[in-house]
UniProtKB/TrEMBL annotation:
Coiled coil: none annotated. It holds the Pfam family YhfT. This is Transport system permease protein. The keyword Phosphoprotein does not apply. The keyword Transmembrane applies. The chain crosses the membrane at residues 6-24, 68-87, 94-113, 133-151, 158-175, 187-208, 236-257, 277-309, 316-341, 361-392, 404-428. Keywords: Membrane, Transmembrane, Transmembrane helix. The lineage of its organism: Bacteria, Bacillati, Bacillota, Bacilli, Bacillales. InterPro entries: Uncharacterised_YhfT. It comes from Oceanobacillus picturae.
Amino acid sequence: MDMIFVILIGAVAAVLANMNIAVFNDGLRPIVGEHIEGRLKRRELGLTAFAMSFGLVVGFGIPFTVTASIILIHSILLGTDIIGLITPKNKWGTPLAAAIGAVYGWGLLIGLEGFVKLFEHLPVNFLEPMGEVGTPVVVTFMAFPALAVAMQFTIKKGILTFLVAALVRQLAVFMNEGGFLSIGGNAITLNQEGMALIAGMIFLFGFAMREKQEEGSSVDLASIFSEKVKAIKKNVVFFMIIGALITGATNLLLMAGDPISLSLLAEGKQADAGIAAAARAIGFIPLVASTAIATGVYSPVGFTLIFVVGLFVPNVWIAVIVGAIVIFLEVMLLSVIARFLDKYPGVRNSGENIRSAMTKLLEVALLIGGANAANMIAPGFGFFFIAGFYLLNEIAGRPIVRMAVGPVGAIAVGIIANILVLMGIMTLPQ
């Protein structure tokens, strides 16, 4: 049963990515939206997906998975993002994505330790440093509402939004460190980036809603938000299938949705893991909802509430059913949110600014992450290579999209470092 669940999750998730329906990487959703609207070629999309997710798979997902002997969801769904977006979206590419995704899921379950040992045999093991590629993404993503406010309204309002979001984040850190929140004696950890994102989104939508009152704009129900949500709703059956599978696998303690709940599960603390998963889900709802509404691309785990269901429901088959219902209700909720946004032209018009803000932040975050990873692999040379790589790519007319420069450059530094060590030109980093 364990093998069946993981194989099916790999296959279905790869198909959803291949068909541009859902991707797990939050940062990839706006980029897939760019491809859907014809502004990004499939080749560039696949390259960007590989660059953004590979480092997270090998440097974040797999090490946690090997350590706990429980699959961290990132290790499978980030991989299926790559598989689905690299394979062509046609009559033979989609079945191929399903087959590779199934094999990848099977391989994860049986071959994780061997993969990590393969990297250990390299002169320069750049598995762990590659995890730095994605580190700035989640942290910087909380700033996109402030950037969107500055782009649509004024720079002063953007700065105000940014400062409030930063303050809310630090308050969340303070509350976490002080252990001020608890349920039944269990400390609740707030997702600080999620809290900052909520604050930023409140300001963004607050300013946008005031725009309607000031201008007296008429309601246009055929807005970009409604159209994007319609695209998600028509695929709700796919989300129910993958949601049911992931909920069942979580109930069987095969996988976890985040490192905190995974570590608690490894210690046998299932109830604590469920509480941690619930707190994380609450913090991630605005991120998933906003990116889905703005791009028309959903997440295969939805708002991540299915992990909470999987950990608290006592029976695997009941968990499967409840998980499907939960993700169905999430999709329906998106429609309610979109109808609310339709009533406010200012909010509706912010869709393009949200997309642009996400893209700009990702370009910066991935460049920083790639530079940090490269410098950990080869101190000094890493910064030099990424800076030169970025500037030469700009002068050449950006044959590699900006978002891919940092991650691709970090992978290239890892390969170059191994070659130079084998040639005796470089010493092993200390």
